[in-house]
Specification:
By secondary structure, this protein is of the alpha+beta class. The protein has six helices and ten strands. A six-stranded mixed beta sheet has the order 2-1-3-4-5-6, covered by helices on one side. Strands 8-9-7-10 form a four-stranded antiparallel beta sheet, sandwiched between helices. The longest helix has 24 residues.
Length: 243
């Protein structure tokens, strides 16, 4: 009997390593090889969305609301939920994973809710994650393009199109002249190369955001220089696991 169990475990591990399939795993949603192939980029996106919110949120999380739109709403939502929750928790608990994250969330009394809906916009599908704390709600949405790469498409209700990189910088500011020049000059003086630069705003002269994909980590000194200009309400370096 023990040999049979060992053989079954070995076969399941082989399936996971070769195809991404997960079967009969305790506390982890089962995923077939077919699902894993289609869902892979979406699971990665879900983790990035969670990671963004986790890195931006300092206060305890009370609730996590996840919206699935279009094609992604028909996928294995349990696995996607686990990826989102794990991403959110990584900052405070680096050892958390898709198996342990939902368990830890339940222990902490975090309410997790999901909504799925038919395609409602320009994208074939997208995921929107909203986190609720005592102080605020914070949301971000993303999709997977035809090239299989995740993109951030909305932050704080502001539409954007940002490729996800290992090192990024997120800023908030009023929509005034000088933001692009200040960011570019400060990064250049620090020797930080900008691979991609995305801007978005709620309205002309209103709240605006910038998200930079950079080739090197943004140091605390660089962030302080940007803060000292008085142009930015928030300056936050971000790190993502893009491998």
């Amino acid at each position: 009997a023990q040999e049979n169990v060992a053989l079954q475990v070995a076969e399941q591990m082989s399936d996971y390593l070769l195809t991404g399939a997960v079967t009969n795993a305790l506390n982890m949603p089962s995923v077939t090889a077919e699902e894993a192939k289609v869902m892979g980029p979406w699971v990665k996106l879900a983790g990035h969305l969670g990671s963004f919110i986790g890195q931006m949120t300092d206060e305890p999380v009370k609730a996590i609301n996840i919206l699935y739109d279009g094609v992604v709403a028909e996928m294995n939502l349990a696995a996607l939920n686990s990826a989102v929750v794990a991403g959110i928790m990584k900052r405070v608990n680096p050892d958390v994973n898709m198996v342990s994250a939902p368990v830890i969330a339940k222990e902490r009394g975090i309410k997790i809710s999901t909504t799925n809906q038919d395609k409602s916009g320009a994208f074939d599908g997208y995921i929107k994650v909203t986190v609720v704390t005592e102080k605020r709600e914070r949301s971000i949405a993303g999709t997977v393009f035809s090239d299989g790469k995740p993109r951030f498409i909305q932050i704080k209700g502001i539409n954007i199109d940002a490729e996800v990189g290992a090192h990024m910088l997120y800023t908030t500011n009023e929509d005034v002249p000088g933001i692009i020049g200040t960011l570019g000059m400060t990064m250049g003086q620090a020797g930080v190369n900008i691979a991609n630069f995305t801007l978005g705003r709620a309205a002309a002269g209103g709240e605006a955001i910038a998200i930079l994909y950079v080739d090197e980590p943004v140091t605390d000194d660089v962030c302080k220089k940007l803060q000292d200009t008085g142009l930015f309400q928030q300056v936050k370096p971000l790190v993502f696991d893009v491998n």
